[in-house]
Amino acid sequence: MSEDLQRKIQSELDSFKNTQKELQKAISTRQQLDSQLNENMIVKDELEILPKDAKVYKSVGPVLIKTELVEARQNVGKRMDYIKKEISRVDDLITSIEKKQDVHREALQKLQHQFQQAQVKAALHA
Amino acid sequence: MAQISSTEQPNMKQVDLMTLNIQQLSTLKQQLDQELSLFQESLASLKMAQTKFQNSGESLEKVGPDSDGKEILVPLTGSMYVPGKLHETNNVLIDIGTRYYAEKDIDAAKDYFKRKIQFVTEQMEKIQILGLEKSKIRDAIVEIVELKLQQQQN
């Protein structure tokens, strides 16, 4: 009985730790996206204040390619939309992982409680 | 003094530190320590960015219409240079981020770096103020923990 309980606790603990890792990963992705969005916002502001005939280049690997200002603005705007979508997706992911973590935490607490009670019982019988 | 200001986040509750137990207080202190070290890191990287912008801005002082045709050494690798001549010295290319480069004349470029330096400096000031606030709260927590420990001993 007690071995069975221990096994259960172990497996619950493992899945709890796994969700913790998942959460950490999701959070770092979220932070990365945030900084990307910030950088794109700064670039967008900079592109907005350029005069209409300004020359803009895009670096692709080792070369600079000339781009139209309008196109550059559009591209940055599109990328920002994409990043915003990604952010809301990761936010949803984070909430769902947090929920999962709560479930595991509760289960773990219950199992630990059971384990303690079993130990007390065993001590009384001994 | 023993209260955390809730001005940053509206969903945060005001908590009287005296009502927390030592365990909770030490967790809170750990969190604050982490945040403070994060602030230090951010300040360091902002400082680096500031220096870079300052250097770029200063090197603009050395180029102008009269440097057209002047000879320079262009680095091909870290240890190999070829001679070259400056051309079209009224315009410079500026990396504005996310792999975009914009051509600007010297005055616009100077203005760009001035704005960037100002932006970075503002961010640094903000972080410093936040950091000061957090370290005040941290000190308060340490004080209360000591107080509680003393009470326990008596």
Structure, described:
The complex is a heterodimer of chains A (126) and B (154). Chain A is mainly alpha-helical. Chain A has a single domain, classed as Helix Hairpins (Orthogonal Bundle), CATH 1.10.287.370. Helix content of chain A is 83%, strand content 8%. In chain A, strand 1 (56-60) and strand 2 (63-67) form a beta hairpin. In chain A, helix 1 (2-49) runs antiparallel to helix 2. In chain B, 56% of the residues lie in helices and 15% in strands. Chain B has two helices and four strands. Chain B has helices at 22-60, 106-153; strands at 71-75, 81-85, 91-97, 100-105. A two-stranded antiparallel sheet of chain B has the order 1-2. In chain B, helix 1 runs antiparallel to helix 2 (106-153). The two termini of chain B are 24 Å apart. Chains A and B meet through helix 1, strand 1 and helix 2 of A and strand 3 and strand 4 of B. Strand 1 (56-60) of chain A pairs antiparallel with strand 4 (100-105) of chain B, so a sheet runs across the interface. Chain A: InterPro entries: PFD_beta-like, Prefoldin.
